[in-house]
Structure formats: C-alpha cells, structure tokens
Amino acid sequence: MTTRDNSWVLITGASSGFGEEFARQYAAQGHPLILVARRLDRLQRLDEALRRQFRIEVVVEQVDLSSAEEVIQLHQRLRERGIAIDILINNAGHGLHGPFLDAQLDASLAMVQLDVASLTAVTHVFAQDMRTRGRGKILLVASLLASLGVQNYAVYAAAKAYVLRLGEALHRELKPDGITVTTLCPGMSDTGFATAAHQQLTPALKQLLMQPAPVVRAGIRALQAGRISVVPGWANKATVIFIRATPRWLHQAVISRIING
Predict the structure, then answer these.
(1) Which of 69, 107, 157, 204 has the fewest CB atoms nearer than 10 Å to its CB?
(2) Domain spans of the chain?
(3) Which long-range contacts (CB under 8 A, 24 or more apart) does 54-61 make?
(4) Which of the four CATH numbers 3.40.50.720, 1.10.1760.20, 3.40.50.620, 1.10.10.10 does domain 8-260 have?
(5) 42: Cβ–Cβ under 8 A, 6 or more apart, which residues?
(6) Lowest-confidence range among 2-6, 86-90, 102-106, 128-132?
C-alpha cells in the first residue's frame, strides 16, 4: 500500500525523462502531484498510469513554460483550487548540441528562455507562497556541465551554470524563510536528452550513461536532507573533483573530447 502524504508536488517537464521519473517516485511516496508540460497526450497517459498504480490525486496542466504569462496563470489556477505547492521540482529545460554559430539564433534564445528565464519565473512565483507559509522545498535541475564551458554545448552549459549559481544563492537566502533549495547536477543520463539535443553519444559517454531512477532518487534524498547541491553517480563526482583540481585548459580539453569525440 502507498503511504499517503498530502503535501503537493509540482513537477515541470513532467512528460518525459527526469520529470516523469520524479512523478513516479513521488507518487510511490503517496504525494498528490501537479504535472506540468507542453505535451498533453503524454501527461494524460502518465496521469492515468499513476492514478491506477498508486491511487493518488493528479492534476495535469498543459503549460508553455517559456511564457511568463502562462506561468503566472498556472499559479493563479492552482490558488483558485486551493492547492498550495509544498515541493517544487523545477525540471523543465532542453539542450542543443553543436557549434554556436551553426545554430539558429531563435533556437538558442528559446533555450535560454526556457532554461533560465522560465525557471526563474516558476521559482519566484511559487517561492513567494512558500515564504508566506514559512515552509517549502525547491529542487532546481542543472547539469554537470554547469561546472565548465563545453565546446558545442556553449549556450546550454552557460544556462545551467546560471541555474547552479541561482540555486546556491537561494539555498542561503531562503533558508531563514523555511524554504530548502537544492540543485541537482546530473551527468549524461538515459532520458532521451542526447537525441533531442542532436548529439551522437561517444563510446566514453555511453560508459558514463546513468539511468534516470538513481539520479532522481539522489535528488529527492538531497532535497529532503537540505543539501545545497548534489552530483549523482561516482563517475560524475570524480569528474567534478577532476574539474576543481586541474587548470581550465586541461579539464575543458578532456571533457570536450569525452563529449564530442
């Protein structure tokens, strides 16, 4: 039997990848869920599966998170229903692999809008309510690439660096308000990210590929423990140590070779 936990969890980018896995793991804990994404058909299938398996309450919200206006409207709809978000999983985002100048400018700017501006808007809107109540938890999903600039992932790495620094600052800034902010920094994972980003996985990356379940589990545990950030997987932890212990020219060259071949 699923143990009931009445605290609401809002998950952005819930239609696939990490978002879908966060939904499954929080559903297994008995939480009612708000599933947010653009792809309504996938959200509805996940909704049906989670209700059937875990018998929890699920609210599906089709939202284009790249629009700040739609973020505000989402917040207003939930308030009108009397739903207070206790846990926010700010997961929505996407990457784009390839030379900076070969990408369409609109595509790069759209990625910045979703990965940076929209994440900021969602965090700001729902953290306001958490501060009023004096409690809440926020998980920001960044990336291992937040630790360095990476050839052919220039804009994505820069966007995730913003997410990591925002999370680090808010961890301390919002703690007196009873709000825990944790940043999850996964490495390459089997979520379909590489395909969506138009990246061919190198043999080295295939060896480092993690499944979504342990990554999400690490994020949930870190958030529950009140940690400032977490890098899941021993290989990814070793990579961070390597980055911190070596000059930029060296670790950027090595990581670029691993990612780009």
Answers:
(1) 69
(2) 8-260
(3) 54/2, 54/27, 54/28, 54/30, 55/2, 56/2, 56/27, 56/30, 56/31, 56/32, 57/32, 57/33, 58/27, 58/32, 58/33, 59/32, 59/33, 59/34, 59/35, 59/83, 60/35, 61/34, 61/35, 61/36
(4) 3.40.50.720
(5) 15, 16
(6) 2-6
Assess contact for 165 and 140: CB atoms under 8 A.
no
> Tokens 């890098």 appear where?
231
pLDDT tens figures, 152-185: 999 999 999 999 999 999 999 999 999 999 999 9
Mean pLDDT (the chain, rounded):
93
Residue 22 tokens, joined: 């966060």
pTM of this prediction exceeds 0.90:
yes
Quote the DSSP letter at residue 99: -
Long-range contacts of 47-52 (CB under 8 A, 24+ apart): 50/23, 50/24
Q: Are 189 and 210 in contact (CB under 8 A)?
A: yes
Q: Which of 33, 39, 32 is nearest to 16 (CA)?
A: 39
| Higher-pLDDT residue of 196, 168 | 168
Q: Are strands 229-230 and 58-62 parallel, antiparallel or unpaired?
A: unpaired
pLDDT band at 94 (very low <50, low <70, confident <90, very high): confident
Show which residues are catalytic: 156
Distance of CA 109 to the CA centre of its chain: 19
